[in-house]
Specification:
Elements: H1 9-27, E1 36-40, H2 46-54, E2 59-62, H3 65-74, E3 82-85, H4 94-99, E4 104-108, H5 111-123, E5 128-135, E6 145-146, H6 153-164, E7 169-175, H7 188-203, E8 212-214, H8 221-227, E9 231-234, H9 236-239, H10 244-247
Helix pairs in contact: 1-8, 7-8
Length: 254
Amino acid sequence: MTISEPGGPIHERLLVVRERIAQAATRAGRDPAGITLVAVSKTQPAELVRAAAAAGQLVFGENRIEEAQGKMLALDEVSGLEWHMIGHVQSRKAREAAGAGFVLIHSVDTLKLAERLGQFARAAGRRQRVLLEINVSGEVSKAGFRAETREQWAALLPSLKQAAGTAGLHVQGLMTMAPQTMEPALARPFFERLRELSEYLAEQAVLGPAPVLSMGMSDDFEAAIEAGATMVRIGRAIFGERDEQLAKRGQPKE
């Protein structure tokens, strides 16, 4: 049996992940249908993405614009695929990101990037769906608007309001990454902080009443769902371990 055949390893892993998502949602009293699984296909070959699509997975997350465009071209005949940019977008790459065909960009981490993405989306006559990346842990290694304490929220509000009001963008919610920990339950307070921030921003009319919350990866997605995630980004649990040389680049394990 090959990886592209029904019942192959990708299919089996997807079944397990979907069941774990459903169980976590049920524990939290939530409808599993309200949680979107983004299969993180960064560094994975198009053949594996094709296998996941054959198993019914249509939403994929990429870290690099050029790599994503190559897969979009290679899988052009597969209908219904939805591509998300989940990696850091440099301001100088805003034009490419806005024109690459991403349904959603998760990683708008500065007001400058929001404005540039909006500028290029407007020039193309479209609105780019985005999420604002929030640093809820205060780790200097992480990008995003700093919001690790509630006391910071009021001071942060004008920047987030300006980003959300950028012409050419449709800000649909927030994204975060919790600190890496050996115990997934320890990540839950960080996910709860993002949910609380989203509630605060909804009260301030910065976000809509049901914002997207993109949080949770292979090691902690169940804790994220229990804390309110509406979108989880899972790579390793679906595709297996990445190539060691690629992993050495320092990318977080999704």
